[in-house]
Amino acid sequence: MPSFATFSEQAPDLAAAVARRLQSRKHHTLATLRGDGAPRLSGTECVLRHGELWIGSMWQARKALDLQRDGRYALHSGSEDPPAWTGDAKVAGVADEVTDPVLIAELNGEAAAGGPSHLFRLDIAEASTVHVDEAAKLLIIEVWTPAGGVRRIERT
């Protein structure tokens, strides 16, 4: 599954828009799968470094245990309330846990300093942005997948 760097090479404009939205806010919403297959929503933070998208987790948190069992995830950038809303970004794929203590310390920062923590690299199966045009007449959705490239959907 592609890294964020691969996504950026294949769809530079959309990847830049996704990165802007993810970096514009500290807190995001992460969807994982519980053991029984039901969805779980958790708050999380993410970091873009070394051409990869990363999330950390407190040691043995439910979201970490979910991702260890089944790495499928969806991440939502969060957004402002209307009328200040400028759009959202969403990324989905498979999370892969990384146990390198140097990377954990670098990317989890203060969380890693307080004791053990988890670090996951987020591979990307799909990425998208949603926003309205300048006249606020069209909802514009741009979606990228490795197989399909970028497609644009406009709704009135």
Characterize the structure shown.
The chain has 156 residues and is of the alpha+beta class. It has a single domain, classed as Pnp Oxidase, Chain A (Roll). It is built from five helices and nine strands; from the N terminus they run ααββββαββααβββ. Strands 1, 2, 3, 4, 5, 6, 7, 8 and 9 form a nine-stranded antiparallel β-sheet that branches. A hairpin with a 6-residue loop joins β7 and β8. The longest helix has 12 residues. It is globular and about 50 Å long. The chain starts with a helix and ends with a strand.
Question: Radius of gyration, Cα only, in angstroms?
Answer: 16 Å
Structural class: alpha+beta
Helix content: 25-40%
Q: Could you give the count of β-strands?
A: 9
Please write the CATH class name: Mainly Beta
User: Could you spell the SSE succession in H and E letters?
Assistant: HHEEEEHEEHHEEE
CATH homology superfamily name: Electron Transport, Fmn-binding Protein, Chain A
What global shape is seen? globular
Sketch the major β-sheet: 9 strands, antiparallel
Domain count: the total is 1
Q: Which CATH architecture?
A: Roll
Number of helices: 5
In short:
The chain is of the alpha+beta class. The chain contains five helices and nine strands, in the order ααββββαββααβββ.
SSE arrangement:
Blueprint: H1 4-10, H2 12-23, E1 28-33, E2 39-44, E3 46-49, E4 52-58, H3 62-69, E5 72-76, E6 88-97, H4 101-108, H5 110-113, E7 117-132, E8 139-145, E9 149-155
Antiparallel strand pairs: 1-2, 1-5, 3-4, 4-7, 5-6, 6-7, 7-8, 8-9
Helix pairs in contact: 1-2
